[in-house]
Write a structure and sequence with these properties.
The protein has 345 residues and is mostly helical. It has 11 helices and 3 strands. A 3-stranded antiparallel β-sheet has the order 2-1-3, with no helix packed on it. Keywords: Cell membrane, Endosome, Ion transport, Magnesium, Membrane, Transmembrane, Transmembrane helix, Transport.
Length: 345
């Protein structure tokens, strides 16, 4: 069983490298699309015409395939937290390619992510043996998991229909929250599909079961939703801010969903569970430190032809008393001296 966890660990590392790179490549593609006046955050899809964005998509697909196979061989509580390594890759590449400076405290955050991930790997639970997709379906029909899935769907609809139009451009938790929460259902579906494929290769055809296709449809729907709102988040906020928050929320909800559905922690000792939780907290601390050391993107004016708001200028009368004038008012040059901003330096 250790060998299967090892395979999952290696694949998770490969996945993190590709996915971390894809954030940066897609961000570059989104920036080029913005130059043409089409912003994803504004509902535009001009980035679909950018080869660089598609290169980022290919890179992400390769990473997700590696991640997909990793879930077949290892439990979600092992594979998902290793996604922290993609944050490190993303932060380093953002420093090199996007001029998003990585401070010394950010380097400490990267180190904490590595230490926490190592702790999680050392105390990861063993994967339970599942023999058919019907068995996974029974796990998905457990009352506690059905309650979780219903809660996720309700919250996601609330965020999409109410919060996104009002607060999506100003609150990063809206777009990232949608991706993260729905992502937990994506992982559960992908794990079911992966096990079905493995069993089919071994000789037990699982695609004759309607449950396999239900998991497939759920996975496709969730992935499309994730990609759409992840593009909006990347186009609106700094990459180094999006990546850690997305990782922290996505990992938390995925571990919760996996613990409810697959009972990952069943049979583990209290010390192992505590050690893994400590490792996860260490990773979250690292992402928080990394996030706190990054500067947000400067605001971008999406309407180049919008009229400027009236400027307010401050002048000084001859007697030294302040006098305020709006832009549209005529300047009494015979009475005032313009005080430039340089004079205050």
């Amino acid at each position: 069983m250790f060998s299967t966890n090892l395979i999952g660990f290696v694949l998770a590392i490969v996945s993190s490298a590709f996915i971390g790179s894809s954030f940066i490549i897609k961000k570059k593609g989104l920036q080029r699309a913005t130059l043409n006046g089409s912003r994803a955050s504004g509902g535009g899809y001009g980035y679909l015409l950018q080869p660089l964005w598609w290169l980022g998509m290919v890179t992400m697909i390769v990473g997700e395939i590696a991640n997909f196979v990793a879930y077949v061989y290892a439990p979600a509580v092992l594979v998902t937290p290793l996604g922290a390594l993609s944050i490190i890759v993303s932060a380093v590449l953002a420093h090199c390619m996007l001029n998003e400076k990585l401070q010394k405290m950010g380097m400490l955050g990267c180190l904490l992510c590595i230490v926490g991930s190592t702790e999680i790997v050392l105390h990861a639970p063993q994967e339970k043996s599942l023999t058919s997709v019907d068995e996974i379906w029974q796990l998905a029909l457990q009352p506690e998991f059905l309650m979780y899935a219903a809660s996720v769907i309700a919250v996601v609809f609330f965020l999409i229909l109410y919060c996104a139009p009002r607060y999506g451009q100003t609150n990063i938790l809206v777009y990232v929250g949608i991706c993260s929460i729905i992502g937990s259902l994506t992982v559960m579906s992908i794990k079911a599909i992966g096990i079905a494929i493995r069993l089919t290769i071994e000789g037990a055809d699982q695609f004759a079961h309607v449950q396999t296709w239900i998991f497939t449809m759920v996975a496709i729907s969730c992935i499309v939703t994730q990609l759409n709102y992840l593009n909006m988040a990347l186009d609106t906020f700094n990459t180094a801010v999006v990546s850690p928050i997305y990782y922290a929320l996505f990992t938390s909800f995925t571990i919760l969903a996996s613990a409810i559905m697959f009972k990952d922690y069943s049979g583990q000792s209290v010390s192992s569970i505590a050690s893994e939780l400590c490792g996860f907290i260490t990773v979250l601390s690292g992402t928080t430190v990394l996030h706190s050391t990054r500067e947000p993107d400067p605001p971008v004016n999406t309407d180049l032809y919008s009229p400027l708001s009236p400027n307010v200028s401050w002048y000084s009368r001859g007697n030294g008393e302040p006098w305020k004038q709006k832009e549209e008012e005529e300047s009494p040059f015979n009475l005032i001296t313009v005080i430039r901003q340089d004079h205050f330096k």
